[in-house]
Request: fold
Amino acid sequence: METLSISKDLNDDYFSILVDESRDVSCKEQMAIVLRYVDRRGSVMERFIGTIHVRDTSALSLRNEVVGLLAQHSLSPSYIRGQCYDGANNMQRDLNGLKILIQKESKGAHSIHYFAHQLQVTLVAISRRCDEVRELLSLVSNILNMVRASFKRRDELLESQAKEIEEALRKGELETVGA
Reply:
């Protein structure tokens, strides 16, 4: 999905951002930004919207880059309702970190620590030392890429999961929670 169509796909104008900044293999600082939002069908979506080369990793510079990228896609920072960062000082600092700068523009932009970053770093470290883990992660990555690349495969997977859930409910292995 193109990013321009994301703004049209939002159920309302609110969204969350996930931001991670790190050095790439060429030693350039890069900032990756992902949007999380509810689409018009009521599904929670996560969409990668861009990687930006950043010369200055100060909180103010990162904020300007985030706001600039959002503006390119007709998204206003005042509609941010969630922000997710790793524990880096420029992101989390209480007085002038990126989270505080974003909250000044959007009072409802609650911040959540990005623990998945720690999991990723751990998995990368383990996969470098253990061939079985590296092979497993490669297999999972290939499967995900194959399923994501085809609506037909995605539909087949969803149908298969629905049948498994129905069977588990029928056997009493799963229970539904009353609404």
